[in-house]
Design goal:
This protein is 68% helix and 0% strand. With 245 residues, the chain is mainly alpha-helical. Helix 2 packs antiparallel against helix 9 and helix 3 packs parallel to helix 11. It starts with a helix and ends with a helix.
Amino acid sequence: MEVTLWTKCVFEFIGTLVLVLMGDGVCAATTLERSKAKGGGWIVVTLAWGFAVMCGVFIAGPYSGAHLNPAVTVGFAIAGTFPWKEVLPFCAAQMLGGFCGAGLVYIYYQDHYKASVSNPDGILGTFCTMPAIDHKSVNLLSEIIATCMLVFLILAIGTTGNTPAVGLGSIGAFPVTAIIMALGMSLGGTTGYAMNPARDLGPRCVHSIIPLEGKRDSGWGYSWIPVAGPMIGCVLAAGLYLLVY
């Protein structure tokens, strides 16, 4: 297969779709009424999100590098490991993939969404992130720090000393899976660790249009934080990487 920019974007779309389908899927499974996984808890959610990223990387990795996240794409470009001319197409593919993945979650769990109309906050939380305590300056800082760690660690994995030992390169599936799980368990308690505009904004848009009676608003007053925080964090991560390495 000839790996053109179009090919790369198709795989970024598919990989991000799978990431969100499985990631938002576990949020739905552990939250919605009459789901067999209801009440599964934070450990289940963080483990499943890590494995969701792993599955997306397995799909897209050989063709696009499996960024699956605009913050990763921009961070790589700033660090000089990714061409700037491909940034916007990659980001567009990722955002569309996140939207479609969340749409599939709604289709899959539609009966359970209807059974959960008494929990509109929980329904929103299956699509996108909202803070545990609404303190926007701290929420923004949380997303900046978490995403900075994510992008910096991914870049660090790809350094010469790490690559042979890991054997999977800077975006290898298993190391990134472990990173996502660790960040979710350690830093996810404040905002739900979006760390990825495609994981949050696209699904939030899906929530805003689903025909579900009794749903709440889509949290647009907060929606800028899971976008701005990761983008600021990725810039800091790239700068830190260039400084350290």
